[in-house]
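Q: How do we represent a protein-ligand complex in a form that can be generated token by token?
A: Start from the inputs.
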Amino acid sequence: MSTSATTSIPMLRERPAWKALSKHYEEIRTRHLRELFAEDHARGERLVAEGAGLFLDYSKNRITDETVKLLRQLADESGLADRTAAMFRGERINVSENRSVLHIALRMPKSESLIVDGVDVVAEVHEVLERMAEFSERVRSGAWTGHTGKPIRSVVNIGIGGSDLGPVMAYEALRHYSNREMTFRFLSNVDSTDFVEATRDLDPEQTLFIVSSKTFTTLETMTNARSARDWALAALGDEAAVAKHFVAVSTNAEKVTEFGIDTENMFGFWEWVGGRYSMDSAIGLSTMLAIGPERFRELLAGFHDMDEHFRGAPPERNLPVLMGLLAVWYSDFFGAQTVGVMPYEQYLKRFPAYLQQLTMESNGKHVTLDGRPVDYDTGAIYWGEPGTNGQHSFYQLIHQGTRLIPVDLIGFAKTLNPLRDHHDLLMSNVFAQAEALAFGRTEAEVREEGTDEAIVPHRVMEGNRPTNVILAGQLTPRSLGALIALYEHSVFTQGVIWNIDSFDQWGVELGKALAQRIIPELESESEPELSHDSSTNALIRRYRTMKRG
Ligand code: F6P
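Then emit the structure tokens for the protein with 6-O-phosphono-beta-D-fructofuranose bound:
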């Protein structure tokens, strides 16, 4: 399918809205949020949007109505509506890999259909979901037994990147809803410590390994999977045990069979699901085992709610579009290098780590769709920690440092674990941080507090630090799905403005290839001939000497 309509748009700096925004920025950069709020008493009620059960307050951003108008115009000139429609139609918008991008099909209800290249992908998705549900029920109920007849009580997901970060984040996020009789572990690093610590207290007779890898060739995952097979067979002593203790999630049936896992015990997905967009495909098998098929379906429904909101809501009320445009505004006009994402919800402790792959693998790109070098900044660095812990660590720099760091603060109206007044204390911090970051404390205010004159400059807080506040009712599978899809589509929106391929990841290849070349040089019994640069040669020699010593 043709993507020429989307690759031939003018370079970003040539688009009229960009030029208008550059001029507009010169006015806005000197405006303070204090003034913007003083001029418009309804600002806090006006600059908000709601969708898929999430509420976004974007009023504490360094914007006016004119900024929003120009950013919307930029979205139009960048072809956001066409590119969104092309994604939902299954066009090959991942141009450098010539693939469709259809994670949105993973959460379409069974009653819908989406025909791509003559195949109804929604029907295929639901076939796999049904197999996953049947398998999960058998494991959870104890009907599926290990080689010695005992029920499975521990599940170890072996995967890395998109085959790990989504599953581990979802497990932690939905731990409240999980089967507490079962233990879930997530093994990703090729560092043997990760393997040993993940398995040390598990009973091989009651452990199930899910080998999750889209390609089934990833060095870390395959190395861990082989060690897991050795670990299980050392205890169970029979090759036949593999069938009871290993299942695979992959698009590569051939490699799965080669590894020794029967394709009966394989859950497939498709090349149109990118690794970092796969936690709601069969890659979510560990999530389904933890929370059960019904709740997994609620998670999918949450994703779908946000997909529909993204597809249908007008830009000025569209959460992912607004957040995506604001991210571009700060990256490219204010020169912001990073975005902080702070969930005020302990269960979301792995959400920032998950977002790092989603945002940075997607939008860390240096050329446009048609291969021209970009002359503007693309994807920002995402990072974060759960509130309130971050406040006692790095928030000082956000409040008074010299860099501008836009922050997303995420909170829920109800906690899953009510205890005295903890939740009001937690949420008071969400609102207080957004207020302090926006309005700060002026010199006059500091003096009024009777501060010693020499200390006054130290205590002044400039404010004018932008935040988005995202609120939801309670952390449920459904609200989690909506929250993840919010960021997925915000990332997409940013990628469309920057006219980059948000769905490839060529930048990770070189390091992998070089490691393959270095492995035999580290393992060789005899002194290998080295032909790297002088630093790499010397490091390899030093490592060889040190490990012998
Ligand atoms: O190294 C990057 C990457 O290709 C990611 O995009 C992907 O999520 C991860 O590796 C794991 O890949 P696989 O699922 O094929 O093992």
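The CA atoms of residues 356 and 473 lie 25 Å apart. The radius of gyration is 25 Å.
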